[in-house]
Amino acid sequence: MISLAPLLLATRIHDLWFALPLIVVVSLVYSATRHELPRPIAVGAVRMAAWISGFMLIGFAILFTVSSLL
Amino acid sequence: MTAKTDPSTHPLPEQVAEERIEIDLKDPVFAAFLAWLLPGLGHWYQGRTHKAVLFFVCILGTFIYGLYLGEGRVVYASWRDNDRRLPYLCQVGVGLPALPALIQAKRQTPIQVPLFNDRNFMAPPSVSDAHSGQDELDRLHKRLNHYWELGTVFTMIAGLLNILAIYDAWGGPAYATPAKREDDASDGDFEKEAKS
After folding, report:
1. Out of A29, A38, A41, whose CB is closest to B59?
2. What is the DSSP letter of A13?
3. From B141's CA, which of A26, A37, B43, B187 has a CA 20 to 30 Å away?
């Protein structure tokens, strides 16, 4: 049986763009509650955004693999 | 009231510089209330303008974008038996921008004029429609499709992020406390030796 996962992904891939502003905003606000000066806020936000993106990518890869196998 | 932390446990120079800053939180409770009322207002009151602008733009921008995605319908207050709008508990964290939903919920009777003369904006959708036999909420879900969920998520996240901002206005930044470096410990030993 041919997996439909890549096809479904292709049709819904544009929805992932909605995650981008959320990652930026969450990273900035969270970092701003941990620091006071603009530079540490920016550095912390970049680090936080990398963590969130990495976590999402790992989750995405696992779910994509599982759905492709089923 | 000022927020201070012990700088000796923070090794990086920029962190040390940051944590030596004494932040005048003025009246923290009033600042927290202002921070809830409008994102960034509490920080503006405390004179922390760059953070005020950041919170205002990020949190209010997220809330307004979510509201736009949901065509002004995703933020509404309802505690009816067949429609308990739990996301509003998160959305109300954004303060004043979410409060028209409470007024709209009170003005659902046909006699009262709706807020902003708009019967739909932040108003709870009717859950039974005599004309079609279909709920307005069902129609909204069908018409807006996944934008309904996206709008709800964006507005909820905005409200939750403002809770972090409220805490920051009340207590100052929650600095990370990395483990004490070994050379810090050795500095301490050196000081002890020098004293003896």
Report:
1. A29
2. G
3. A26
